[in-house]
Amino acid sequence: MKTSGDVGDLNISGGPHNEFKIEVEIPKSCKLYLRIMAGEVEVTGIRGDKDVELSFGELTVEANPEDYAHVDASVYSGDLDAEPVAISKGGLFRSFEKQGPANIGFMPMSEQESSC
C-alpha cells in the first residue's frame, strides 16, 4: 500500500489461483478507481464517483444515484450488474456510464475512519 496526500494505491499480485478472497475496506466517501484482471468483484458502500474495470468475471456495483456524480463500470468478458440503476448485462465488452445528481465533498483521509 502506497499513499501520497489523499491518494492510496494498492497493488496485489501473485497468490493462489483458486478460492482466493480479498476484502479491502476504504473510506465510505471517496473517489474509487479500480482495475482488476479476473474474479468476482463487488463494490458496495462507497459514496462517491466510481471508475471500475474488470477484465474477466462478474462485476457488481452498488450505484445509488444520490451517492455519486459519475459512475463508469465495464467488464471485457462476464457479467455486469448495478441493480439500483437497472443494469444487468452479460457477455463480451459490457459497460455502463451514469451521471448522478450528487455533489459530494470529500474529507482528507486523515479525517475519515477507515482500515485498509
Structure description:
With 116 residues, the chain is mainly β. The protein has a domain of 72 residues. A four-stranded mixed beta sheet has the order 3-4-5-6, with no helix packed on it. Strand 5 and strand 6 form a beta hairpin. It is globular and about 40 Å long.
Summary tags:
116 residues; two-stranded antiparallel sheet; 6 strands; 0% helix
- What is the distance, rounded to the nearest whole angstrom, between the alpha carbons of the first and last residues? 9 Å
Q: What is the count of β-strands?
A: 6
Mean pLDDT: 81
Low-pLDDT segments: 104-116
Radius of gyration: 14 Å
Shape: globular
> Could you describe the largest sheet, including whether it forms a barrel?
4 strands, mixed
Structural class from helices and strands? mainly beta
Q: Given the structure, what is the number of helices?
A: 0
- Percent range for β-strand residues: over 45%
Q: SSE string, helix = H, strand = E?
A: EEEEEE
Adjacency order of strands in the biggest sheet: 3-4-5-6
The helix content, as a percent range, equals: under 10%
